Amino acid sequence: MGRKKLFKVKILLPVLLFFCLSFSLQAQQKSPSLPSNGFMITPLMGLIDDQIPTLYYKRYFVNDSSSYFNFRIGSEFLSKMKHEFSTGSEFHSSRANWKLGFEYGIYREKSSLYFGVEVGHTVIRSSGGYLIPLEGSIFKSNRYRAVETNHSHRNRMRMVSLQAFIGFRYHLNQHFSLGAEAALGRGWFLSEIKYDRDRQVADEKHNGRINDFIPLRFISLQYSF
Fold first, then answer.
1. Residues 151, 195: contact at Cβ < 8 Å?
2. Contact call for residues 158 and 101 (beta carbons, < 8 A)
3. pLDDT digits (tens, 9 = 90+) for 14-51
4. Domains in the chain: how many in total?
């Protein structure tokens, strides 16, 4: 997207709401000596590949000495961006994202191999222009083409994606682990441009589909309890 600034980082409230609700779930099978909940954060991806860090909460339905199965829900940190066009006009946008999926893992001594599926939903609201996703935008925050518009307001780009992932995790102890994950996905987007009513210009919609693969989606730190 050219030059942009990332600022005012906050954690989305829905993550905390789902965290509270998840404690009401009953595990179908689990060992009392093994964790039944977990938090996973991807703290470094904003520095490595221009990705926005994500916080996940996990609820284990099965967790024994050989394997585990959990439900996971996550959200990127809320971000706002600013882009300057060659004409000197400015484009402002705010981005929100959440993810929902299931994960199955197999334990191997102090490590585990896991895989699963995830559904993602991204909403970007903007003024002064609109966004068209490019290849790679499912997993990276800078893969968009910004288009300048005049007399438009309440522009919005939405993308829903279906993702499959595989990862490896090294367990430092029963509670802390480090992981790395690869993923592929397909996304469907809709970009809507709302013009000022006094301009007598019809609103616009642009839609499409993109495919994406990333060999290192993120490096994660997980705490299980």
1. yes
2. no
3. 444 454 455 434 444 444 568 899 999 987 655 555 67
4. 1
